[in-house]
Design goal:
Length: 446
């Protein structure tokens, strides 16, 4: 029996869908089956064959235009000319590893550290978010002398041995590490504690106490501050603060996984964690920092990083290479010069307003929540019971795909649409997205 992963299998093409495909699409899916490993997944019952992207738009092989409402990897927009130019110019000059001196890595580090809290003053570069989180866990263990890592119940932090062992979203087929503990997601749509911050801090403390009872020393709490895989849970701002105080009181560190909420995505702040008024010990990020170019980073407090780097050399062959650093610098420059943080805040507020009108119109829309251009749209059987409606969410995804709107689902129940477009998203795109949702819901949820 195949164990399904909530992050990989919820909205995916499966063998039973193959007979309904057009011949040219069936040819491609059959070829993938023959030559790629079985772990790969495709989106949609009728997979999309994409060949071109620009800004927030994508085109398939037949020339059909799509609105991308899912892809944060191309964070400032597909094929952004500033990134294309920066990468092209640097590729024509040099691309090599960090055992040689080069200005790009130094210039970018100065630029990006200027956006972090003053306590964060060191950087190490990799190629993927998985690598960044893997190293962060190693540093946490070195600094604390412990091994215990706490994550939320549907967290996803990567695919390496260490990170998959701390990623419940990969499903029961991927065992968690015996030193990993899980806390409930801060789902304040269903949970209504009088003090959300104290409730979450108490849940963290319970798992630390459980570690002690099992002779596991606590090392750290690893979290994506918008809890995207848990169903997009951004609010209330500040509720993380008490939990981080508990983490520090027990000798652990806070690792802020900013692969998804970072780089102006949430609108309120440049970094997602900053909405909560906390200072992480480590920040990790991934491919959105290079608009899809393979680059990632770990930013840390010097004393925290020293516990590892003073004893263990770290070398990632092409982490921080001149081409990747040129891409990252171009992305940061665009975000700052075009005020994409402010743009994300304004566009996100407009989109939330329109989505909440749909919530008032359709009883199957249980909750709409978000920060900036990162919004969760939750489907339920009825607003009283708040029972998750996964079947409706998956059918809705397919109806949107048929209207040229691409997104997917999140959360432990697979019933939350994760609306996370490139930051190039504009007011005119709201009409396309909300109109498509309205038409689909009229048919699926009258």
């Amino acid at each position: 029996m195949t164990t399904r992963s909530t992050i990989m299998d919820t909205n995916s093409f499966r063998a039973e869908h193959a007979d309904a495909l057009r011949p040219e699409i069936r040819q491609l899916t059959d070829k993938r089956d023959r030559i790629l490993g079985e772990s790969y997944r495709l989106f949609y019952r009728n997979p999309v064959h994409l060949v071109k992207g620009k800004g927030q738009y994508l085109w398939d092989a037949e020339g059909r235009k799509y609105l991308d409402v899912y892809n944060n990897v191309a964070s400032i927009g597909h094929c952004h000319p500033a990134v294309v130019e920066a990468v092209s110019q640097q590729m024509q000059q040099l691309n090599t590893h960090t055992r040689y001196l080069h200005e790009n890595i130094l210039n970018y580090t100065e630029s990006i550290l200027a956006t972090t809290p003053a306590e964060i003053d060191r950087a190490i570069y990799m190629c993927t978010g998985s690598e960044a989180n893997d190293l962060a866990i190693r540093v946490a263990k070195s600094f604390s002398g412990g091994t215990g890592i706490i994550v939320t119940q549907e967290a996803y932090h990567g695919t390496s041995e260490l990170t998959s062992g701390a990623s419940p979203a990969l499903g029961s087929g991927q065992a968690l590490a015996p030193t990993t503990r899980v806390v409930p997601a801060p789902d304040f749509y269903r949970l209504t504690p009088s003090d959300p911050g104290q409730w979450f801090a108490h849940e963290i403390q319970k798992q630390i106490d459980d570690m002690k009872q099992n002779d596991i020393k606590f090392a750290g709490f690893l979290a994506d501050s918008i809890f995207s895989s848990d169903g997009v849970l951004p609010n209330p701002p500040g509720f993380l603060k008490a939990a981080i105080e508990v983490v520090h009181k027990n000798g652990g560190i806070f690792i802020a996984d900013e692969v998804q909420p970072g780089f102006a995505r949430t609108g309120d702040t440049f970094w997602g964690f900053a909405r909560h008024g906390v200072v992480p010990d480590i920040i990790t990020t991934g491919k959105p920092m290079g608009n899809g170019i393979p680059v990632s980073a770990l930013f840390a407090k010097s004393d925290v990083l020293a516990s590892f780097s003073d004893h263990i050399p770290y070398f990632n062959t092409f982490g921080g290479n001149p081409v990747s650093m040129a891409a990252a610098q171009a992305v940061l420059k665009v975000i700052q010069e075009e005020n994409l943080q402010g743009h994300s805040r304004v566009m996100g507020a407009l989109l939330l307003t329109e989505l909440r009108r749909l919530q008032q119109k359709y009883r199957c829309v249980g909750d709409v929540r978000g920060a900036g251009l990162f919004i969760g749209f939750e489907l339920v059987t009825d607003p009283e019971s708040k029972q998750p409606n996964k079947a409706l969410a998956l059918d809705l995804i397919e109806r949107l795909r048929d209207q040229g709107i691409l997104t997917s689902v999140a959360g432990p129940y697979g019933n939350v649409l994760k609306l996370r477009p490139p930051l190039a998203f504009q007011a005119a795109d709201i009409d396309w997205l909300v109109g498509g949702l309205d038409r689909a819901l009229q048919q699926l949820c009258p």
